[in-house]
Specification:
The complex is a heterodimer of chains A (179) and B (141).
Chain A (H helix, E strand, L loop, with lengths): L7 H6 L1 H24 L2 H18 L9 H24 L3 H14 L7 H11 L3 H12 L4 H8 L3 H21 L2
Chain B lengths: L2 H12 L1 H9 L7 H12 L1 H34 L16 H9 L3 H7 L9 H9 L4 H5 L1
Helix pairs in contact in B: 1-2
Chain lengths: 179, 141
């Protein structure tokens, strides 16, 4: 997943080339990461644009302290969280209502297709608390190691493992109950 | 053990259903048209941002030019008085005195303040005017 070719030195020398390379490697992966968080294709598309604008603006400041994809994921995750918080404020809903809002968005989203069981999984994920949903998505779909997830989300590995465990249990129960 | 196997093992211990779902999972993909559109629009970001930065600089330059013009006009207007050609540098005047001198634009006063013979500023007369600025017209008369 890491890309040793895009070093800070390479970025300084050829920022646009490095940026285009980043788009080729990560844009689709970031799209799906964002899409899973916001459950809406149009919002995901807009957010991906904003994320890559931020990536471009901050690319020269990348010092190689973390892997590049971890750095991009962190920007993406923060943008998604800001977006979700804004939406929550706009709706002036309670936390539970907001989760239902995400689930409703999922139900009306046209771009999702797949088997019934997959839809059930997506529905189960959409009603997880925000933190557990992030952890589950990063682990289950993006197959991110806990150490890197810890850098992206700024949470301890132990905390992430606990969140993931709870998330899986809840999803398991949801799928069983809705059989 | 690679990361995927570790994830599967982890899932099996909590939810065998999820583990089997994960095994069958097909990574979602955007259509090639969607992917191309997404990448093309993202690759335009550097150019768009450079354009924005240029516009911002033009705007800043415009504001700076307008501010300079305004300062120049204010200075020009404020200096457009009937100040005599006397050299203020010959006498030491405080800021207050200079301001007062600027405010007192009467030709009469100016004549009064300047010595008829030497053509130089009459400092004593000026000080008197300053001390009693409200009655300076009486002073002249």
């Amino acid at each position: 997943m890491g890309n040793p070719e895009i070093t800070p030195e390479y970025i300084q020398q050829a920022p646009e080339k490095a940026f285009n390379y980043l788009i080729d490697i990560y844009s689709e992966r970031i799209y799906w990461h964002v899409k899973r968080m916001v459950n809406n294709h149009d919002d995901a598309n807009d957010l991906v644009q904003e994320i890559f604008v931020k990536v471009w603006k901050n690319l020269s400041r990348y010092r190689g302290e973390s892997q590049l994809y971890t750095w991009v994921y962190r920007i993406a995750t923060n943008e998604c969280l800001t977006f979700l918080q804004k939406q929550k404020k706009l709706r002036t809903m309670s936390f539970d209502d907001d989760e239902l809002g995400l689930a409703d968005q999922l139900a009306t989203s046209e771009s999702i297709d797949g088997k019934a069981v997959e839809k059930k999984l997506e529905k189960a994920i959409s009603i997880l608390p925000e933190k557990q949903r992030q952890v589950f998505n990063l682990r289950y779909y993006d197959e991110m190691p806990y150490e890197q997830m810890s850098t992206v989300l700024g949470t301890s590995v132990g905390g992430l493992k606990a969140s993931y465990h709870h998330a899986v249990q809840k999803i398991h129960r949801f799928i069983e109950d809705n059989d | 053990m690679d990361n995927r196997q570790e994830i599967l093992k982890e899932l099996e211990s909590i939810s065998p259903e999820l583990a089997s779902l994960k095994k069958e999972e097909v990574q979602p993909k955007l259509s090639s048209v969607q992917t191309t559109a997404l990448k093309d629009s993202l690759k335009q970001i550097p150019e768009k941002e450079k354009g924005k930065t240029r516009k911002l600089w033009y705007k800043r330059l415009g504001v700076a030019a307008a501010a300079c013009m305004a300062i120049f006009l204010i200075m020009r207007l404020s200096s457009n008085t009937t100040r005599p050609p006397a050299d203020y540098a010959n006498v030491y005047l405080s800021n207050e005195e200079i301001v007062l001198l600027d405010e007192l634009e009467s030709d009469d006063l100016i004549q009064y303040l300047y010595d008829d013979n030497s053509g130089e500023l009459n400092v004593e007369a000026l000080e008197e005017a300053i001390m009693d600025e409200n009655n300076w017209t009486e002073l002249i008369n």
